[in-house]
Task: inverse folding
């Protein structure tokens, strides 16, 4: 009897000890390594199969219009023909940012728009209009004397070409080539004169290709600037963009960027960082931004897993649904160091060096670059206001200059956590006056940096075009600029999974003002809790051990 | 032959073991959500935890009902009588085969230390876990009950502290279950309902 009891007791204690040891608190901490969202399907081939070419559904066939059955010598002639019927279109366009390149932020009162901001790509439009205006919806903007009121200067074809044959050439002040010309320069390849008649007879609605002709090439090349916009979006597959999927929803840009009177909605200068209302009835104009995710998906879009809806008070949809940017065919530029630009070979010729991926890593004209694909965004609190460092704003050469700064924070109910591409670089600044310095990059005169690689001259001419004094003494300062990530929305199966944030050193590590279950929030509480539990365990094991021994003795 | 007394009724036993399983599972999934280790995966752990929490809540509704309709709630009225004797027993008597200072009967199934411990679980640990758990679940709807400004970190803090208290209680409880007049006596009683007395 006693023996059996002893045996049983040993057995039970063994069981209890084992059970308690297996209690969660004592298991080892395991670092979770989650792979970055890899493509669910293979990467799109160079040209994804396109939907069968659809005949335009328009009620007007422009090739039947008498006004267009003629040859045009230049773009403005085409515009005049357009305006004969579309009498208000010119004026409408002239009221848009696509035309003015100007925007006054109502909160900060800062004068923004391409005309006024500095960036850390080509840095500034000033003195470089002949080149930059290749992406202006106008003809002839070569310097400050451009007439912004002349309707014939509006370029209708830039957006309404459907042939893909219309190309505004950098250096021609917004015009396409009317004569045969070598393009790209020194390439030995030649472009035929632009067939304006054919293009005018085939105008139509805007498309991914026509918007993309400028917006995919920001920063001076395909995929360079935004990271979430590049030419792979012309015919994307589902993995790259669930809405634009050429074989699926096949959205055009305008599907979200609903436009009226040529005003395109959705703006990087005045973004809607936190839409709090539900879905927006399409077509109802109540002043809300129709490009937000919620404008269509409403405020509780997760039906399978409702807990996800609880995140919308803190997160922008983009944070989970765009797990990485530059997921198309091309890497995006991540850094640009102007300070090394201007190095020439022994013969005094321009140098270009490519990296192992075949991208230009160094160019005498521009300096050093790095690129990345499948980039994990950085994350910031953002309430829609952006503060820019503009001409004349003081910069301290010792710190990295934030060319733009996303405002907002955890305590601001209008803020959400947003994914951003942060573009870092080095660019000139005035050492004495402590301002960013802009320079004459391309175009006329011997001061253009891309002609003679002379910073002193290029900066002098560039700065003379601004109202800001220039001391003549310059150096290079580190800068960074943030771009909200909002395109290339992944299919839901490729959205971030919970654990990509809910762990130690997850995606949102370092972001202030959030409590994140799973991220080792209170090491001290854990230490205390597990210590006391461990002591209790040791205590009962010792107690049980003594019981076992004394019961043997007693027996 | 030893005498047998019927202590735990059928519902009580069912309640005890299903609650035990649920609480172990809640600890297992809860501490995974907390980030202590990885087992089911965060997403699954949250789903399982939520499901188990709801189950526990339903079980409790029945249990509370049962306790009041049967009058069994009186078992938890605290008493300081013999508490010192119980302490002494656990510290020395238990090793010398001294007689247990408490005799279970159908009317008083819990010894005085048990009463205090369970009462503490009922009035402190459970409410802390429950209320913080509800707040955690309905975090985004808290403004409806006027708690809109309550930060998640506070809610989680109470929930985690409650969870640790539960873990520590659990360890002591499981061990003391072996401290009957034989190591398995209490456990058997909770299975069959019958406790064997000497
Ligand atoms: C013995 C019972 C329970 C234990 C030991 C327990 C333990 C835990 C722990 C350790 C966490 C992680 C907290 C953190 O790190 O922030 C957690 C999360 C949570 N618990 Fe419990 N819990 C229990 C019961 C409950 C109950 C009854 C409810 C609901 C009424 C509940 C609802 C939740 C919720 C909603 C979460 C957060 C999961 C999420 O991220 O959505 N728990 N629990």
Result:
């Amino acid at each position: 009897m006693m023996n059996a009891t002893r045996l049983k007791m040993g057995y039970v204690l063994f069981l209890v000890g084992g059970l308690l040891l297996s209690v969660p608190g004592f298991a080892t901490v395991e670092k979770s390594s989650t792979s970055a969202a890899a493509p669910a399907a293979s990467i799109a081939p160079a040209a994804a199969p396109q939907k069968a070419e659809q005949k335009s559904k328009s009620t007007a066939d422009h090739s039947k219009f008498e006004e267009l059955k003629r040859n045009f010598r230049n773009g403005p002639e085409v515009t005049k023909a357009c305006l004969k019927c579309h009498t208000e279109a010119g004026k409408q366009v002239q009221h848009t940012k696509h035309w003015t390149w100007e925007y006054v932020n109502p909160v900060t009162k800062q004068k923004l728009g391409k005309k006024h901001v500095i960036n850390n790509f080509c840095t500034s439009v000033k003195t470089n209009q002949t080149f930059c205006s290749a992406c202006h919806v106008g003809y002839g903007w070569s310097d400050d004397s451009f007439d912004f009121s002349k309707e014939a200067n509006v370029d209708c074809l830039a957006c309404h070409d459907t042939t893909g044959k219309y190309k505004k050439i950098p250096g021609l002040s917004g015009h396409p080539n009317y004569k045969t010309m070598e393009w790209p320069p020194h390439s030995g390849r030649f472009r035929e004169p632009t067939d304006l008649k054919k293009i005018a007879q085939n105008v139509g609605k805007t498309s991914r290709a026509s918007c993309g002709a400028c917006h995919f090439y920001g920063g001076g090349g395909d995929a360079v600037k935004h990271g979430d916009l590049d030419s792979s979006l012309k015919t994307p597959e589902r993995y790259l963009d669930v809405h634009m999927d050429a074989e699926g929803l096949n959205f055009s840009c305008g599907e979200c960027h609903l436009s009226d009177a040529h005003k395109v909605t959705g703006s990087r200068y005045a973004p809607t960082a936190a839409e709090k209302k539900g879905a927006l009835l399409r077509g109802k104009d109540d002043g809300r931004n129709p490009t937000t995710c919620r404008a269509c998906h409403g405020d509780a879009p997760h039906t399978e897993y409702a807990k996800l809806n609880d995140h919308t008070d803190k997160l922008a949809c983009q944070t989970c649904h765009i797990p990485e940017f530059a997921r198309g065919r091309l890497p995006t530029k991540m850094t640009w160091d102007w300070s090394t630009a201007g190095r020439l070979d022994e013969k005094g010729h321009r140098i270009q060096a490519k990296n192992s991926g075949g991208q230009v890593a160094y160019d005498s004209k521009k300096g050093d670059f790095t690129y990345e694909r499948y980039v994990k965004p950085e994350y910031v609190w953002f309430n829609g206001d952006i503060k820019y460092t503009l001409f004349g704003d003081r910069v301290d050469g010792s710190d990295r200059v934030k060319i733009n700064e996303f405002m907002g924070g955890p305590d601001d109910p209008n803020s959400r956590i947003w994914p951003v591409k942060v573009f870092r670089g080095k660019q000139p600044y005035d050492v004495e006056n402590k301002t960013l310095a802009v320079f004459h990059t391309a175009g006329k005169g011997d001061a253009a940096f891309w002609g003679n690689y002379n910073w002193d001259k290029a900066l002098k001419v560039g700065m003379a075009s601004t109202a800001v004094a220039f001391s003549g003494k310059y150096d290079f300062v580190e800068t960074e600029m943030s771009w909200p990530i909002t395109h290339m929305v992944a299919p839901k199966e490729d959205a971030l999974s919970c654990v990509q944030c809910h762990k130690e050193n997850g995606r949102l590590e370092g972001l202030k003002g959030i409590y994140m279950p799973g991220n080792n929030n209170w090491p001290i509480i854990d230490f205390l809790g597990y210590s006391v539990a461990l002591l209790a365990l040791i205590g009962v094991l010792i107690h049980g051990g003594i019981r076992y021994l004394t019961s043997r003795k007693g027996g | 032959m030893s005498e047998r007394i019927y202590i735990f009724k059928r519902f009580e036993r069912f309640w005890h073991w299903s609650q035990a399983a649920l609480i172990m599972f809640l600890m297992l999934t809860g501490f995974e959500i907390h980030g202590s280790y990885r087992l089911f995966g965060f997403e699954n752990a949250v789903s399982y935890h939520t499901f188990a929490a709801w189950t526990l809540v339903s079980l409790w509704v029945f249990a509370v009902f049962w306790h009041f309709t049967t009058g069994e709630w009186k078992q938890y009225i605290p008493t300081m009588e013999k508490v010192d004797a119980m302490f002494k027993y656990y510290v020395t008597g238990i090793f010398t085969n001294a007689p247990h200072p408490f005799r279970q009967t159908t009317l008083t199934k819990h010894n005085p230390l048990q009463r205090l411990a369970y009462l503490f679980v009922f009035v402190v640990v459970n409410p802390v876990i429950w209320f913080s758990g509800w707040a955690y679940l309905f975090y985004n709807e808290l403004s409806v009950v006027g708690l809109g400004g309550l930060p998640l970190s506070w809610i989680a803090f109470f929930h985690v502290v409650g969870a640790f208290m539960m873990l520590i209680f659990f360890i002591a409880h499981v061990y003391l279950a072996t401290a009957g007049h034989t190591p398995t006596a209490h456990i058997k009683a909770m299975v069959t309902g019958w406790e064997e007395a000497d």
